[in-house]
Amino acid sequence: MAKSTFMEVLSMASVRILVYSDNLHTREDVIRSVGRKVGEHSIEWTEAATHEGAILKVEEGSFDLLILDAEAGKLGGIGVGKTVRDEIDEHMPYIILVARPQDRWLARVAKPEVILEYPSNPRDLAQAVRSIVEAKVNA
């Protein structure tokens, strides 16, 4: 059996994505929209229903991408994203989901890679995930 090249091994690796929302249906919608694969990579999904849980999971784990619900109670996705970037990993890519278009200005403060309205078009969300994962793999 031939040895795998580094790029072949990398292409078979899974991508770890954390989705944070206090709404179970939002988390399910995100996972269903993106699916279980992005390109050649399988996706390992981790869910967080509280901001404390999301931050703890980021501290404990190694994620390739965060998808954060700005509408989550207490500390929404904008605050979680900013906390992660300021205190844990300044290079962590994340997507913010906003319920209203007028909330985009607030989401920009946290400097996410992508801001999408939620409910979002599943293709737009899947494409945003694909773009971020491909950029990370090709970096």
UniProtKB/TrEMBL annotation:
Keyword Phosphoprotein applies: yes
Domain of life: Bacteria
Chain ranges of the Response regulatory domain: 16-133
Residues the record lists as 4-aspartylphosphate modifications: D69
Keywords linked to the UniProt accession: Phosphoprotein
Classification via InterPro entries: CheY-like_superfamily, Sig_transdc_resp-reg_receiver
Record-given protein name: CheY-like chemotaxis protein
Organism field: Arcanobacterium wilhelmae
